Amino acid sequence: MSVFSFHQSLVDTPDSQVSCHLHISPHADKALHFLHGNGFAVRTYEPFLENVVRDESLMLQDAAGHGMSPAGDKFIGWNASADRFLASLTTQRTAYGLSPMIGVGHSFGGCMTMLMSEKDPELFEYNILLDPALYPPRMIWLLKGMAVSKVGRHLPMVRQTLRRRTSWTSVEEAFDALKGRGTFTGWEDDGLWKYVQHSTRETESGERELCCPPWLEAAVFGSAPKKLWRTIRRLKTPTYILWGTDTYDTFRESYLLAQKLNPNIHLVEVKGGHCFMQQYPEQAARLVRSIIDHGKVGITDSSNAEFIVNYDG
Fold first, then answer.
1. Rounded CA gap, 82 and 136, in Å?
2. In what order do the strands lie in the sheet with 308-311?
3. In whole angstroms, how far apart are CA 154 and each of 28, 57, 151, 159, 181?
4. How many other β-carbons are positioned within 10 Å of the β-carbon of residue 249?
């Protein structure tokens, strides 16, 4: 059972609808905005977020094809996706008085948070990006004009997506089939159950199928934002990038370059892989909470010592 009292709604944007989940705290003096990784419905992260959020309000959004957000007939691109999130957030922020806000996101959602921040520097007080999906310049150049089938030769995430099983007879079978395999290696059971519950849906025959079609997930992984590195250079919002020591080499390369290009970006290397917040939800949440409560000083708190591998501060 969730500790959050979510109100779910489909929020209209200029070109589609976005599924939003709002938890409004009566005592909140700030709000957290969280965006998910590609292929993971946003409520997959509840076990992690339950350990992060205290008195804050919380807003979650699902990208196209995730959760209850409509998939559409094609991937509209990273920048247009960020614009959708921004439009939806603006609507909800005005309606519920969600201010000030902290931007948090994993993988695709981390990159979305950064794109939104660069477009509106006053949107978030600061960002906490969890292994954000940032491709290095050489990879972006390689992706330009390349078909998704060919991209798969270079990006393991695309290969895995196109080979992925998409349906199961029940949530229990889905859980058993995914546990400890591929992307889900090392995940805590609570996070995997949330994935199965919210990232799959029941079919007319009573089976479970992925909400996000593989073609859409692969299209996301096989592309990149326009002018990503210009965005990184221009980013004014204080930003913490927390990344797993066993993450993808391409992401690691990007994080180190981003730090060199922008003094507003601070790196914290932690235990685990790309989904470290699912492998170590309590430790990851404690670190994020330390940043929320104490900023940079909180990172060096002794309670985070065993989880942090390296910190640039």
1. 19
2. 7-12, 17-23, 57-62, 31-35, 101-106, 127-130, 239-244, 265-270, 308-311
3. 45, 40, 5, 8, 21
4. 8
Angle between helices 189-199 and 171-178 (to 10 degrees): 130
The label of the residue with tokens 């089938």 reads 149
Pair 207, 170: CB distance under 8 Å: yes
Sign of the alpha-carbon dihedral angle for 131, 104, 135, 118 = negative
| Per-residue pLDDT at 161 | 85
Q: Report residue 141's pLDDT band, with 50, 70 and 90 as the boundaries.
A: confident
Q: Which two tokens stand for residue 310?
A: 């390296």
At 165-197, the pLDDT tens digits run 999 999 999 999 999 999 999 999 999 999 999
Q: Is the peptide bond before 263 cis (omega within 30 degrees of 0)?
A: no
Q: Pairing mode, if any, of strands 17-23 and 57-62?
A: antiparallel
Residue 126, CA distances (Å) to 31, 40, 100, 266, 292 in order = 12, 24, 10, 11, 9
Helix and strand numbers (H, E) in the chain are 14, 12
Sketch the domain layout of the chain as residue ranges: 7-137+226-311
32-86 pLDDT, tens digit each = 999 999 999 999 999 999 999 999 999 999 999 999 999 999 999 999 999 999 9
The answer to whether 242 and 284 have CB atoms below 8 angstroms apart is yes
Q: Which amino acid, 96?
A: Y
d(CA 115, CA 232): 8
For domain 7-137+226-311, the CATH architecture is 3-Layer(aba) Sandwich (3.40)
Q: What is the DSSP string of 24-46?
A: --TT-SSEEEEEPPTTS-GGGGH
Identify the band that residue 143 occupies on the pLDDT scale cut at 50, 70 and 90.
Answer: confident
The sign one gets for the Cα dihedral 71, 127, 125, 282 is: positive
